[in-house]
Design brief:
The chain is of the alpha+beta class. It has two domains: 2-137, no CATH class; 151-256, no CATH class. It has helices at 24-28, 37-41, 44-57, 63-72, 82-89, 108-118, 120-150, 154-164, 172-191, 195-201, 215-233, 238-256, and strands spanning 2-6, 9-16, 19-23, 94-97, 103-107. Strands 1-2-3-5-4 form a five-stranded antiparallel β-sheet. Strand 1 (2-6) and strand 2 form a beta hairpin. Helix 8 runs parallel beside helix 11 (215-233), helix 9 crosses helix 12 and helix 11 runs antiparallel to helix 12 (238-256). The longest helix has 31 residues, at 120-150. The protein starts with a strand and ends in a 12-residue tail after the last helix.
């Protein structure tokens, strides 16, 4: 459950089978006067739009029953609730939810049309706010994917450090220094600086150097974790590993960045 703030109106957004459903009950609070969702649903134009949407997106839609409802929409006595509409037509575009965050929800396509019924201005603002929400979600998905990518060979790397570089008799604090030192071998080979140097250079940023790495950099870094584990197992000295990993980083990034020179320099 997420929320939109549209012209001081809080509107809940619910995920249903991977699709966004927006709460019409919340949106209705933005309309001047006493109105109900049934007032909107009884409108023939509303029903026509829902019918077309269902025909395109819902193979189980009972179009015969819908036609009966649509033909009644011109009568003054006609009135239908969301629950009855769904029960009779097997519609998926709208739904009534009970309990916490309860209310009437509609697929975003339908909800935007409902927003137009409230006011053209409200529709503009809710579409804008919804787009902002989607952009934030994409950023979060990208960040999560990057973090997972950075973990791919982390276990292999730390295991190699543990079994080859960490003495048997050592405190946790001393062991942490060794792990951090080896992590910085990768940082220097990849980014040209240690974690501390990056923090000192970027005091206003949260997280660490890898949080701000590109996807290509994280792919390369993941490969280097695996290679460094192999080099450690072979007993290669740290300085030699650093130089070798730096050369590999430059080569792999030139490949990943379309074969161009991305400006990384060989360590001396």
């Amino acid at each position: 459950m997420t929320k939109l703030i549209v012209k001081d109106t809080e509107v809940n957004v619910l995920k249903v089978d991977g699709e966004d459903y927006i709460c019409l009950t919340d949106m209705l609070r933005a309309k001047d006067g006493d109105f109900f969702i049934t007032d909107w649903l009884r409108n023939r134009n509303t029903l026509e739009f829902i019918g077309i949407w269902e025909k395109v997106h819902n193979p189980s839609f009972n179009y015969g029953e819908f036609a009966i409802i649509r033909n009644q929409s011109g009568l003054n006595s006609f009135k239908i609730s969301v629950k009855e509409f769904v029960a009779r037509t097997d519609a998926v575009s709208v739904r009534a939810k009970a309990g916490r965050y309860g209310g009437t929800y509609a697929h975003k396509d339908i909800a935007f049309e409902f927003a137009m019924w409230i006011s053209p201005e409200f529709k503009v603002y809710i579409v804008k706010e919804f787009q902002r929400l989607k952009e934030e979600e994409q950023k979060l998905i990208g960040w999560t994917a990057k973090r997972e990518l950075s973990k791919i060979n982390y276990r292999i790397h730390t295991d190699a450090v543990k079994h080859n570089l960490v003495p048997a008799e050592i405190t946790k604090a001393q062991a942490s220094v060794i792990y951090a030192n080896e992590a910085d071998v990768l940082n220097v080979a990849m980014f040209g600086m240690t974690a501390k140097q990056w923090r000192d250079a970027n005091p206003g940023l949260k997280g660490n150097i890898r949080d701000y790495a590109s996807i290509n950099e994280l792919i390369c870094l993941s490969n280097m974790e695996n290679l460094n584990a192999v080099f450690i197992g072979q007993g290669m000295p740290q300085q030699e590993r650093l130089m070798k990993l730096n050369q590999i980083a430059i080569h792999q990034m030139s490949v990943l960045e379309s074969g161009g020179d991305d400006g990384r320099k060989l360590l001396k």
